[in-house]
Amino acid sequence: MLLEVAIGASNLFECILLVFGGLGVFLYGINLMGDALKDLAGYKLKMIIEKSTSTPLNGILVGCGLTAIIQSSSGTTALTVGLVRAGLMTLAQAVGIIMGANIGTTVTALIIGFNIGQLSLLFVGLGAVLIFFVNNRRIKDVGRVLLGFGLLFFGLSLMDGGLNYLMTTYQAQMEALFTAFNDWPIIGLFVGIIVTAVIQSSSASIGILQGLFMASNMTLMGAIPIMIGANIGTTVTAVLSSIGGGSEAKRTALFHATFNILGALLFMILLYPFVLILDPIDNALGGNSSMTIAIAHIIFNTVTTFVLFWFIKPICKLICKLVKSEPTAEEEGKKLLDELLDYSLIKKSPTLAIEFVAKCMTYMGNIVEKYFNLVKEYSRTDNSNTPKEAQVYEDMLDDFDKRIHDYLINITLEQIHTPEMSKISKYLDTIKDFERIGDHCSNICEFYEDRYKRKLSLSTDSQQDLEQMFNSVNEMVSNGILAIKEWDKDKAQVVAETEKTVDNMQEIFHERHTHRVSNGLCSYDNSDYYDELLANLERIGDHCKNIADTVLSINRSLEDNLKHE
User: Fold this and answer.
1) Pick the CATH number of 329-564 from 1.20.58.220, 2.130.10.10, 3.10.290.10, 3.20.20.140
2) pLDDT at position 168, please?
3) Which pLDDT score is estimated for 222?
4) Closest Cα partner for 473 from 381, 371, 370, 372?
């Protein structure tokens, strides 16, 4: 019944169902196939990209091959932008992959051009058998690839049925619509941009165009601009991936957009001669007009890549001028230390030098708070970028600890009063507490990184206990930082009181978890890992208590001095 309807609709309602439903099946199929192919390739995708992009030419080959495998230029460029954001790749390495991805994405249109829709249900059936009747995970992934492949063509068949009905029943109206495309190529360009930006897949939008081109009276002059527009619309994915990233990630996304826009401008200017080249190809292919679109897509991306390959350096220079470098948190921290830790000031005014150290400590406290929040978020959600960000914070805290420590020691070599010497001693303790909190955050991050790799999971009760502990320690960190910023003894007192609660939590939660493990409610593998997490959180609380004690001690000293005065 459905196959008969797919061949030709009998009324407008069926036509709408076929086009709308067919589009859904097609998009689901192409995404399912791409996701399954990514899973088959696994972590090797990132490894290939990271290790095989020493030159732009190598990057083009990698981008082309990778996109042909995963059937998504958007996926390849998003992955590339992600690697740039993580600092694992530079703009120079990324540009080749992006150029190659444009060529690799033409494979989908080429496959569709072979018009093997009659075998679509065979692939659907084979895929379903492998998914539901085979236990091997990799074979299941192969089944998902076949199922997606079959659904892709089945969706096209459904859309063709609806489009055929439209073309025959509403011939005059459809001819008027496509005449507009034929007469005004710029309209087709913007249609291609908008549709692809919405569905975020140039492969999908060009596949739709192939079906539309075969079923309608659209000419190459009307169809090619839509194909060109699709190559601009696909850059939206990379742009979205770069949001919130650093300057390199934004430059990478801008290069992708610039590259595709320049290619589109080139071919829109040469649209008429390009169509003249394609006309004899279309005639030679007979009735298989979808293959003409596939060939046009290949020519467009290959020629664009070849022409712009020679202009990579000037394009990159332009992009670097448009997107200025943003200083990293690490660079800002070093700049602050350089500005505030002025060694010449030590001899001129040791007291003022100590006040500048207090400002550096405040900044160090901000880093600690950000680091703890990063780790807390990582405890809830796996994020592959977190370990690298954590290492940046760890390095910053180590650098602050060493440089402030050395600066304070140099102050002690000068003739200073006893109260100031006492303050220096407290400051030395505080920066060491900050640095140790960073170490414990690193330990927690490493535990969670190992947990995600080993796919370890906790029971709901264990997670709730751990979340409660995280929240209490988070409160201590926040209040401790505020106490040191404002020398607020009330905040410091709150930290001191909360520390007792955190100590009790560690003991109670440890006993609860031991009970759960002994009763089989939690796996034995999780036991040491869970106890170490509790211990690290409790030790962070201890260091916050030390910081609070410093604030209370300095406040008492100030009050005593005022009394004596």
Assistant:
1) 1.20.58.220
2) 64
3) 85
4) 372
